[in-house]
Specification:
This protein has 4 domains: 99 residues; 42 residues, no CATH class; 137 residues, Rossmann fold, CATH 3.40.50; 119 residues, 3-Layer(aba) Sandwich (Rossmann fold), CATH 3.40.50. Helix content is 48%, strand content 7%. It contains 21 helices and 7 strands.
Length: 443
């Protein structure tokens, strides 16, 4: 047996349809096996709050070992995991193919799947996962919803905190009155671009569709300028919010339906582009591990790219169209955890370096947000603490633009900057790197 593995991480399919997956005694055995290894290793101490909680739990027990820890005390460790995958991808030396066969995030997923099966997921958490329902309703009254969700609203935010456990100070995403998928006008495709002839479907994602359609507009404009014909397709959410709450069956059903909806486009030669990294991660990696017997899911995985990955691919293969110009002000770009989990490199940074004379500051560390996790009352302060090193580095750079491929992470970083006792210049409202890239192209 080797001490650690230098081989590439390899993930096993999630056996969520096996009755033993939900056997609580077997789950407890596996938790204890993995926690004991983690306690002896501790390389993940600085990633998220799960590992400090785990190490303190064991260290402060009667024996200082796992044998005197009650299994009921494991829940805070599980609840602190955001399924960011960074322990699996970047830190753990014992992931498969190592003999120890550790997959900490998927073990946390199994725990939550058991909770979900027993009906133990809180009502408010379940409602937050219904992103399509929430988005459709909110877009119809976006002005009212955005007013109610605004930080500092002394009327609504205390009520939201009391009823829905959403921290009153957490920055919430705004909603657009017109979803991205509802826009009918496509930009004119540049037939003189080197990449002319490419065709792509933009999988809008719930965030770009309902919250910030500017991301979709910018992506579509950049692609058109570079000769790519695009169509916008958004059948439904990728299921990441449901995955976070352990509702694996719902995610699997979404994977089957959405891959079937996108298959006609793939068969016509269209590439698939996801506009937000969490959704790209689901389509490319998580869905095939949950649905192993569906050819559509497998083909969709192979056909999918993240938007920054796709643009960098054009630059490397055919070359970009003329017209990209320098911009005023420096840029700080955060490489989000779900971008890193795709194992594709720093594609956002690579893309932005294509802008002439750009002063670029790259941060590759967890923002602390973790999807809906970071806005909850019990997590918000911890989320700010985890993200403080990122906020501090961004503040030190004092860039005009602070961007992240994960828009939620970007807003959380800016909120962290605002809480530092360190003056910075006004930060532009752009969230995603592709928005800035579109500005550099003048589209």
């Amino acid at each position: 047996m080797s001490e650690g593995s230098l081989e590439a991480p390899m993930r096993h399919p999630v056996p969520w349809q096996d009755p033993e997956f939900y056997d609580e005694a077997k789950l407890d055995d596996e938790l204890r096996r993995v926690f004991d290894i983690c306690h002896g290793c501790r390389r993940c101490f600085n990633l998220c709050d799960s590992f400090p909680k785990l190490f303190d739990l064991i260290d402060e027990s009667e024996s200082g070992e796992l044998d005197t820890v009650d299994s009921k005390d494991f829940k805070p460790v599980v609840d602190a995991c955001t399924l960011c995958d960074m322990c699996f991808m970047t830190k753990c030396p014992y992931v498969p193919p190592h003999e120890f066969n550790l997959d900490f995030p998927h073990l946390m997923l199994r725990y939550r799947a058991v909770e979900q099966k027993k009906g133990q997921i809180p009502f408010s958490a379940k409602q937050l996962t219904k992103t399509d329902r929430n988005g459709k309703l909110a877009s119809k009254v976006s002005g009212l919803v955005n007013w109610a969700g605004k930080c500092g609203n002394s009327v609504t935010r205390p009520i939201m905190e009391s009823v829905a456990d959403i921290h009153r100070d957490a920055k919430l995403p705004e909603y657009s009155s017109q979803p991205f998928a509802d826009k009918k006008t496509a930009p004119t495709v540049n037939k003189d671009a080197p990449a002319y002839g490419r065709k792509a479907v933009l999988y809008a994602t719930c965030f770009a569709n309902y919250n910030n359609p500017h991301i979709g507009d910018a992506a579509r404009a950049v692609l058109a300028q570079n000769g790519v014909e695009t169509e916008v397709v958004y059948p439904r959410c990728c299921g990441m919010p449901q995955l976070e709450q352990g509702d694996i069956a719902a995610v699997a059903e979404s994977a089957k339906q959405t891959s079937a909806d996108l298959m006609p486009w793939i068969e016509k030669g269209y590439d698939v582009i996801a506009l937000v990294p969490s959704c790209a991660l689901m389509l490319k990696f998580e869905w095939p591990l949950l649905v192993t017997d569906d050819e559509n899911v497998t083909k969709l995985s192979a056909a999918t790219s993240d938007i920054t990955e796709y643009i960098v691919g054009i630059a490397k293969k055919e070359g970009l169209a003329d017209g990209i110009k320098a911009l005023d002000g420096g840029v700080t770009v955060h490489i989000s955890c779900h971008s890193r989990a795709q194992n594709m490199g720093q594609k956002a940074a690579e893309m932005l370096r294509l802008i002439p004379d750009l002063k670029l500051n790259v941060i590759e560390r967890c923002s602390g947000h973790g999807g809906s996790w970071g806005i909850m009352k019990e997590n918000f302060e911890v989320a700010l603490k985890v993200g403080k090193p990122v906020a501090r580095k961004a503040a030190d750079a004092n860039s005009k633009y602070v961007l992240s491929e994960c828009p939620l992470a970007r807003d959380h970083i800016v909120q962290g900057i605002e809480k530092l006792d360190k003056p910075v210049d006004k930060i532009d409202t752009m969230q995603h790197p592709v928005e800035l890239f579109a500005r550099a192209f003048g589209v």
